[in-house]
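Page 47, continued from p. 46.
Same chain as before, 405 aa.
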Amino acid sequence: MGRGCKLFIAVLMAFMFLIPASGFAADTIKFGMPNALSGHGAAYAVPMVKGAKVAVEEINERGGILGKRVELIVRDHKGKAEIATRQAEELITKEKVNFLTGTIYSSCALAMSAVAKRHKVLFIDSGCRSTSLTEDAGHPYVGSISIDTVYEGRAMAMFDENTPNKTYWIIGSDYAYGRSAVQYFKEWIIKIKPDSKILGETWVKMGETEFTTAIGGIARAKPDMLVSVLISSAFQSFAIQAKPYGLFDKPVIAVPIVGQTELMRPLGQNFPDGVICSSKYIQGELNTPAADAFEKLYLKSTGDAFVPAFAADGYMEMWLLATAIEKAGTTDTEKVIEALKGLYMETPKGTLVMRDFDFKCNLGEWWGVTKYDAKLGYSVLTDVKYIPALPLMHTREEVLALRNK
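Result:
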């Protein structure tokens, strides 16, 4: 064999080793996801990450995005905004992620959004319920597929629209989310029931587990309905203490995200019946091709016994970005942002449509009444009603006015 031939073969072999065996292009598209994998938020964040990983695996098995493999880089911010800020910075500057995703906790989402704006990197959120994220603190580099407190407060009122209830008592954990949701509930209930009345409000410190004094006051007031915006752990303590006083003999409506299967299942018979609440996703509720395929894939990929509600949002978030990138034909941020405007896609939760001015989507949540299921061994939502988000969201004019304050 001649010297020239040997050189040609050596060069050819070296080139072949540079080609990925999978057939993907040499570079990857990176999604960064700081999330609350430990602490109180883990109950939501862990399923979200699982759903995202299932989507990434599916995307890669289908050939990736634009022929490039997708990589999801996850970090644990422990629910702390300062850690979320640092991790978002590191993911952008060191890991060179193309996009940011996540997260649980509004404070962390707002912190990540500020980093995204500074670096002009698109951040799509799936867990923040603060209206600030896409309204007064909104900008072109942030969007969300999560409902917010405008929707949640108004949806609570909508669920109670056709009942004889006229008097209400509010109890909540004293933080921005609860105050905001209550504001929109009060505005909307007066709008649809002009003769309704708020008899009183009780606000407790975050982490409070003793409710005896509050329960006594509510029992004496005898409201037609109790409206709770207690965080999940506080609501569980309150429910146990309030039941002997008969407070759960009348309608109780509760947010945030009290009706998730992953929260009710571990409590068994300890979760009270008759609580009106919502869930981001309910396995088996939708018999659509997209929902059936997602549920089968998730259960097969993870080995979990059921599909957690937050897994659906993690899954959808990855596919939303994949669809936008494919539509844009590039990972260039500005072009992907343009592709997101008016983008629609079939998801496990129905047809998703992104608004072109704030990158919020039209999908709402499922609302129902809790009831213990002896066969399953835990509570489920009955009399389920889907309340879409779009009719209850702030309009274009309202969003732009808040941004220009």
